[in-house]
Amino acid sequence: MKTAIPVIEGIIEDVKASSIAAAVGGDESEKLNNIYKNLEQNCKVYTDKFDIAKNAPTVDIGISVAEFGVSETGSVCVDNYSYEARVTTMLPPINIVFMNKNNVVNTMTDAFAILENVFDKGYTGFVTGPSRTSDIERVLTLGVHGPSRLILFAVDGME
What we know:
By secondary structure, this protein is of the alpha/beta class. It is 31% helix and 29% strand. A hairpin with a 4-residue loop joins strand 4 (68-70) and strand 5 (75-79).
């Protein structure tokens, strides 16, 4: 995960980002918090849920965690039960997602089988990159309903 830091720093520099909303929870928190401490040298990083809720509409980058990936579609499944996770993945123009590289299933059928066994309530979603829409003139627009860039880090040691 340490190799993600220079890549994210490059993104921060390229887009001249001044703030990041980083929603994490569970076992990955400690490892990702170390990354956030390094990034704070370059810009403001919001990790507190109240700070995220307040600042997510204006931050430059959102960082979140995916539960697993789906080979068939190139999607990641995100658990957006908490409000801060939802706004972190949807409002900033860039969404950086961390996922355990071993948590990949082959098909959407496999993905729904997993969700059927573990999903009880809340929100979950499959993200396959920026949203796309075209008007009657066939003008393609990316990122209308969420981030315009999705960057995935599939890493060891997210369990």
